[in-house]
Design brief:
Helix content: over 70%
CATH topology: Proton glutamate symport protein
Number of domains: 1
Distance between the termini: 53 Å
Bound molecules: aspartic acid
Order of helices and strands: HHHHHHHHHHHHHHHHHH
CATH architecture: Orthogonal Bundle
Number of strands: 0
Oligomer: single chain
Radius of gyration: 22 Å
């Protein structure tokens, strides 16, 4: 009996089927019965899939960020290790998101398309009207600290992330006496992951419906821009992984890139194949301690934390993808809005668990932050397997480079 294809295979097949149905409906006359019968249910199904993704986003981000930050309290690390690790995570993630934005601005795939479907979908989002700097800052800062219940009820992700960060820090600070709350958050995260697993099993249906509806109502120019977007995204990930990260490593530790890749390849290939930083973690730890000679004390702190919060590839991709979607929707984002995208992409990469296509769930929050249509997930998901492989390898590479840099700064011997 032929084996049923895995989830990625199913998503690809669904995308293909969606494409065919979409082309068929696209060629049919505007008032044909086929369009009248098919378009409304396709729109409904696609919409429901997007609703499911939005449904889990806020609890996922809360549990993932709070439990990640709270786990800092597990380790009795010196201040130096702590600070270097956080500085490194922040710096490289910002660099990656900035690179993603820069490249998308430069090559602008999808510009000039202005898809009607996206324009219509945007009516409900926050206003895109450009604000002045002062107004923007006031608006932005006021939006950060909000009653968490209100923020969650309204699906406002940014204040939820801020609250989750503070909650995590407070739990870390309290240590043992808050261990039950920490355990609760860990459990909540695991439960959310099960839910997301269930939702992703519906992804083939969602992708089929979203894509069929999109193609039925669009022109072919979309597909040329999609190819352009893939090229720019993969190109950006390669620049980050093959130039910026090894460059930084060499500058700060004098580690030669060739030797680094020779040692790290086992972890990088595993990341590429599994599309999961978490699934790769055991290999990453082994590579760091045995091949790269990072002190286990450093590796055991930097790498597990990095596998969930440090995702350069994800930040780069999400920032770039938001700009691509803006181009598709025919919206020009001004500098401030791009800054918001950059920040949200960084937070989204922190909030994404190290699982296949997890970045697609948190992509919702980046799109929402500047009022872009969440329906765009329907275009991004079918091509995600390829990009996810590359961005996960970059995510794991970022963790390994970080462990070497923190090791160097800590001054610990390799066997500590
Ligand atoms: N798959 C990525 C990881 O595990 C997360 C993402 O979807 O960007 O690192």
């Amino acid at each position: 009996m032929p084996r049923r294809p895995g989830l990625n295979g199913q998503i690809l097949l669904a995308a293909l089927a969606g494409l065919l149905v979409g082309v068929y409906l696209n060629l049919a006359a505007d008032d044909s019965p086929a369009r009248a019968v098919w378009l409304p249910p396709l729109q409904l199904l696609g919409g429901l899939f997007v609703d499911l993704l939005k449904m889990v986003l806020v609890p996922l981000v809360l549990a993932s960020v709070a439990s990640g930050v709270a786990s800092l309290g597990d380790h009795e690390q010196s201040d130096r290790i702590w600070r270097t690790t956080l500085l490194y995570y922040l710096g490289t993630t910002a660099l990656a998101a900035g690179l993603g934005l820069g490249l998308m601005n430069l090559f602008a795939p999808g510009q000039g398309l202005s898809l009607a479907m996206f324009r219509d979908a945007m009516g409900s989002g926050p206003a895109l009207a450009p604000l002045g700097l002062g107004e923007f800052l006031t608006h932005f800062l006021h939006g950060l600290f909000v009653n968490p219940f209100k923020a969650m009820a309204e699906g406002a992700v940014m204040p939820t992330v801020v609250f989750a960060l503070l909650l995590g820090l407070a739990i870390a600070r309290l240590g043992e006496s808050a261990s039950r709350l920490r355990q609760l958050l860990d459990d909540a995260l695991n439960v959310m992951l099960v839910l997301i697993g269930g939702i992703m099993r519906l992804a083939p249906i969602g992708v089929f419906a979203l894509l069929a509806h999109l193609v039925a109502t669009q022109t072919t120019a979309l597909f040329a821009s999609l190819a352009g977007f893939i090229a720019v995204a993969v190109g950006g990930l390669l620049i980050h992984g093959l130039v910026l990260l090894p460059g930084l490593l060499w500058l700060l530790t004098r580690h030669r890139p060739r030797a680094f890749y020779g040692h790290a390849q086992e972890a990088l290939l595993t990341a590429f194949a599994t599309c999961s930083s978490s699934a790769t973690l055991a290999v990453t730890l082994r590579v760091a301690c045995e091949h790269l000679r990072v002190a286990p004390r450093v590796a055991r702190f930097v790498l597990p934390l990095g596998a969930t919060v440090n995702m350069d590839g994800t930040a780069l991709y999400e920032a770039g993808a938001a700009l691509f979607v803006a181009n598709l929707a025919g919206v020009e984002l001004n500098l401030l809005q791009q800054l918001v995208v950059c920040l949200m992409a960084m937070l989204a990469s922190v909030g994404a668990p190290g699982l296949p296509s997890a970045g697609m769930v948190t992509m919702v929050m980046v799109l929402q932050s500047v009022g872009l249509p969440v329906e765009a997930i329907g275009i991004l998901l079918p091509i995600d397997r390829l990009i996810d492989a590359v961005r996960t390898a970059v995510n794991v590479e970022g963790d390994l480079v970080g462990s070497l840099i923190v090791h160097r700064v800590s001054g610990l011997p390799a066997d500590d």
